[in-house]
Amino acid sequence: MRWIMCTKWSLNVIWFGREAHLSDLAVLPTKQGESRPCVAQLFFLLLNRFFTLYLALTSGWHSAKTHNFVSLMHYIALVFVISLGLSPLLTLRGQVIHWPQETFKTNTQQNFTPQQIRDQAATVVLFMDPECPVTQKYGATLRKLHQEWQDKNVAMVAIYPVVGIDSATITEFAKDYRYNFTHLPDPRQQLARALQASTTPEAFLLDSLGQVRYRGAIDNWFYELGRYRRVVTEHYVQDALTAYLQGDPIVTAKTEAVGCLIGTSMVEELHHGHH
Q1: Is the terminal CB of the chain with fewer CB neighbours within 10 Å at N or C?
Q2: In a shared domain, residues 76 and 118
């Protein structure tokens, strides 16, 4: 992992006294294919140069004082390295993506505020498209999910990231499928971008701070577009909810949702699915 390599290099420079050079800066590839030096490496290269210059200017110091000073700086730097190295682990789950701090309108023109997220123990957010066949298949599953959790301080919110969709279409869809939960039009895909949703249907489990604890498929019913299992064997949202509300770690915190790509027409999606 990138952060392990960065931390290892930094420890070599500060703790073990390895001389640092600009050519040592390991430029590691990112997920996007680009390259960049580690922040820790840049920081400790500068720190190493500072120590070298400082000790050269203060060569008249008593050797014991100089040794104590350098040892103290080593310990301070070590704490910083460990903190920098562990920080990615602290943000892996539930701290990267948040519900936006804005007010949105429901399909019935009611305000939906961040406070309504905070008032719940958890909120299940579902990105849906009334025209997507996979979304349509999940009617019974979502009704059962809502009925099972609504009395446990868990809310469900459906978001419709469909360009040009109006409240009347959403209201009719919700009525046809007997969805008795909150519905938010998202024709400009503002919420889809905020939560980094890419597919309908796609589920997100939010805690009371609006932080994402799970994202991905509702379950493993569909394994590719147009193909699904006869029996569901993995209930991702159910399991994530149960674990989170019991204070247990969520074993599967991310899966790949199968369905219709957000921003893609059904003609394009079905064409892509047959190739």
Answers
A1: C
A2: no
Asked if residue 206 is part of any domain, the answer here is yes
50 compared with 168, residue with greater pLDDT: 168
Residues 46 and 119 in one domain: no
Q: For residue 115, is pLDDT > 60?
A: yes
- Where a domain ends, among 59, 90, 121? 90
pLDDT at 211: 92
For residue 19, give every residue at least 6 positions away whose Cβ sits within 8 Å of its Cβ, in sequence order, or none.
Answer: 13, 48
Kindly report the backbone phi and psi dihedral angles of residue 261, in degrees, each rounded to the nearest multiple of 5, phi listed first: -65, 135
> What per-residue confidence (pLDDT) applies to 10?
53
Confirm whether 188 is domain-assigned.
yes
SS (HEC) of 185-254: ECCCCHHHHHHCCCEECEEEEEECCCEEEEEECCCCCEEECCEECCCCCCCHHHHHHHHHHCCCCCCCCE
